Amino acid sequence: MYEKKFICIFSIFATVILVRREKNFSC
């Protein structure tokens, strides 16, 4: 449960860093 949330947050963070223009992250 907690790990899934951490992965989701990490994915969003990574996506924002890699592609700050496009907000293409699915939680």
TrEMBL record:
**Record's protein name:** Uncharacterized protein
The taxonomic lineage of its organism, from the top, reads: Eukaryota, Metazoa, Chordata, Craniata, Vertebrata
